[in-house]
Amino acid sequence: MSTNSELMARRMAAVPRGVGNAHAVFTARAENAELWDVEGKRYIDFAGGIAVLNTGHRHPKVMAAVQKQMEAFTHTCFQVTPYDSYIELAEKLNAIAPIEGEAKTIFFTTGAEALENAVKIARAATGRPGVITFAGGYHGRTMLTMAMTGKVLPYKKKFAPMPAEIYHVPFPHKQFEVSVEDSLKYIDMLFRADIEPGRVAAIALEPVQGEGGFLPAPEELLIGLRKICDEHGILLIIDEVQTGFARTGKMFAIEHSSIKPDIMTVAKSLAGGFPLSAVIGKAEIMDAAEPGGLGGTYAGSPLGCAAALAVLKVIEEEKLVARANVIGARMKTRLEAMAQRNDAHPIANIRGPGAMIAFDVVKTRGTDEPDPEATKKILAAAKEKGLILLSCGVFGNAVRLLMPLTISDALLEEGLDILEASLAS
Ligand code: PMP
């Protein structure tokens, strides 16, 4: 059997460096909130495949549903001969999505693909080209979503030219010294300097910036954006790819606010480890594209649909929305205690709704000065001690915690103990 370092050497030779690896841990198997590498070492998984595994690795009910589907058929292409699981899942999402009035849903495979199609639908519905997104936001790596993503390094470097008609505005946060008022004023300026509101199809944003550092969009921003959209016939696209499916202590993060989106994008934890994404929106908007204009060979794969139907059942049966709040509260208590330790690396800004928690690694206690080097060391120390962690944030110093919501109390404490030991080492 190969070791991690042997596999890493083969990976370096066979796979381009453009795709990163957070850890040189080659996975052999995984179960709920744990995984084992090819050397037999066991890890607690606080990354969840980047927010994909709210229901854990290989949830038995998800496995059973996919296995049953595999016995029947694995692929036909929905555009060739459709299947009922696609319809049932669309009906379920239409019923639970916080969309005003009748909703419709279409499925794709990846998060980026959902965003691409949300923009296509918004353009078809409005007959307008412009899209406004936020600095620090993340929407994917495809050509259009790369342009929508509000971070140059590493996402845009060497990949120009960007697609046209994408505009960024500053995201309100104290570290960027940007207020909600500033963000809204900037949109007004954009309307005067770059694009008239009558040419804007959509404003797209995450309800909590994920890759950008787990920064919640303030309620006043969302209300302000909803007002601008209503005033000018612009569609509001809420990207729930990372925040969706119980992570934030609501089924969808936008439910923490008083506003409703016109279009939502979901992916990641929708199908518990199987590739599936969706665009959910107001029925009349969703019907704007001409027949044949939307779709894809694998879009809404039967395996993904079967998995997602099981995921939705598991979230309900295991009360994972409430569980996210319990896990989040426990994490916050433990992290606050870690922040008080003088013998541990200083951390600050413990934040996030439900179980979508992150904190910043800082140079000096009581300041916000980012320490991305220490962040890397803490992630490496945790990995050595058997805990998989991920960083994020525009300064590279945020640590985000995305354990399965099905994690046991004992494993949660064990993982947090390792995190604490890694901060102190
Ligand atoms: N939107 C958000 C908010 C995301 O977090 C991500 C993935 N991190 C994407 C879109 C893109 O999803 P995918 O990687 O599946 O294309």
The H-level CATH homologous superfamily of the largest domain, spelled out, is Type I PLP-dependent aspartate aminotransferase-like (Major domain)
Alpha carbon gyration radius:
21 Å
Low-confidence stretches: none
Number of domains: 2
- CATH top-level class of the largest domain: Alpha Beta
Residue-averaged pLDDT, rounded? 98
Bin the helical content. 25-40%
- Sheet bearing the most strands, described? 7 strands, mixed
Biggest sheet strand order reads 4-12-11-10-7-5-6
Unique ligands:
4'-deoxy-4'-aminopyridoxal-5'-phosphate
Oligomer kind = single chain
Question: How much strand content do the residues show?
Answer: 15-25%
The tally of helices reads 13
Q: How many strands in all?
A: 17
Order of helices and strands: HEEEHHHEHEHEHEEEHEEEHHHEEHEEEH
CATH topological fold name of the largest domain: Aspartate Aminotransferase, domain 2
Briefly note the structural class of the backbone.
alpha/beta
Structural write-up:
With 425 residues, the chain is α/β, with parallel strands linked by helices. It has two domains: 4-55 and 319-423, Aspartate Aminotransferase, domain 1, CATH 3.90.1150.10; 63-317, Type I PLP-dependent aspartate aminotransferase-like (Major domain) (Aspartate Aminotransferase, domain 2, 3-Layer(aba) Sandwich). 38% of the residues lie in helices and 17% in strands. It contains 13 helices and 17 strands. The protein has helices spanning 4-14, 48-51, 60-72, 84-96, 111-126, 143-148, 180-193, 219-232, 283-286, 302-317, 320-340, 372-385, 409-424, and strands at residues 27-31, 34-37, 42-45, 103-108, 130-134, 166-169, 200-205, 208-209, 215-216, 235-239, 263-266, 277-282, 347-351, 357-361, 387-388, 390-392, 398-401. The strands form four sheets. The protein has a seven-stranded mixed sheet, with helices on both faces. β1 and β2 form a beta hairpin. The longest helix has 21 residues, at 320-340. The protein is globular. The protein starts with a helix and ends with a helix. The relative contact order is 0.16. The mean pLDDT is 98.
